[in-house]
Hints:
The two termini are 26 Å apart. Helix content is 57%, strand content 17%. Strands 1, 2, 3, 4, 5, 6, 7, 8, 9 and 10 form a 10-stranded mixed beta sheet that branches. It is an alpha+beta fold. It folds into 2 domains: 3-52 and 266-400, no CATH class; 67-254, no CATH class. Helix 12 (320-357) runs antiparallel to helix 13 (365-391). Keywords: Cell membrane, Membrane, Transmembrane, Transmembrane helix. Residues 21-238 form the MacB-like periplasmic core domain. Its main location: membrane.
Amino acid sequence: MNIKEGIFSAFNTLRSNKMRSFLTMLGIIIGISSVIMISTIGKGFQEGIVKNLNEISKNNIDIRIEPNPDVQIKRKDMFTEEDIDYLKTINGVDSISLIKDAYVQIDLGEDKKWIQISGGNSDILRISSMKLLYGRNIFEIDNRLKRKVVIIDDLLAKKKFGKVDVIGEKIDFITDGRKETYIIIGVIENIMKKLSETIRDDIFMAVIPYRTLKKYHNIRESGYISIRVKDINEKARVGNEALKLLERVKKNKGIYKISKELSQALESFNKILSLAALFISAVAAISLFVGGIGVMNIMLVSVTERTREIGIRKAIGAKNKDILFQFLVEALILTIVGGILGLLIGYFGAQLIGKFIKIVPILSLNIFIIAISVSSIIGIVFGVVPAIKASKLNPIEALRHE
């Protein structure tokens, strides 16, 4: 029997038992489709977040004070707004701000919620890639006079006031039980929404002048310095010059460091996604194993049912390898067709889910190859025992089988 005849014969046999063949493939279909869905959605989510984060921060340098056991940190070592004036002189600096974050409560009617507010100067929106939708930016005079003005994001505006254009409205921030009333001068696009629409829509943010934050919200620490460079190729040079200038002005070395928080956050994010994918893959692997057992079981039943047929074929000249090949091909076809169906169901299922959670699933060639390869391996591994059993049947005893 040649390969073409073997495949044709295997297809005819499986086609004559459509329902049984489909039920046998079900475990393979479920396993492969699960892996495809989680892989494509996870890949799309990951690439979307990483791309947007890199887009937001690719030109940014954050400088922080990090404790050093060999160096004593004094009050004079803390960042000041005068340091910003020095650092502005570095060639290649596009914008720069001293930034400090704090948490306050806001009253949303049905409940109170903690939100992050950031204090900075007029450059903070540009540095953070925040898009101004309505109103104006923070002016330097707002910072100098410690004005209680605020820029809030569109999600907070919608939640608090039921609309986005809320310029001139007042909002209360609660710190240590004390209420501070701010006038809204601007509305920005929520940066978390910009990263991914799958992220919760109740993570709000607000921006106020740096000096206002220090005065009204019990902030003693100086925060960190954030620099946006004009040219990404100059990022390393500008960062090194900024560190040297700070060490010279502050007369202290070893405590000023370029922050790696973003890269560490991305690394942690990738690890979490990998662990989630591993867990789902493990569950899918169990499904594939059960599917493989099902294939072996149904092929053993098929051998028993077709014992007389095997005897007749051997009697008219079929060799053991011909019988082995036919049953192995049948098992392979079952699992490969199951794998292809699982691939299609997983892909289109991921596309459907992606529309609801605002993610573009990404199916790579590697995932496609792995899915088909795994299906083939299952067919060979779980089909070889029934195939060997069929090939070793004694033709005389097989012909006597009823």
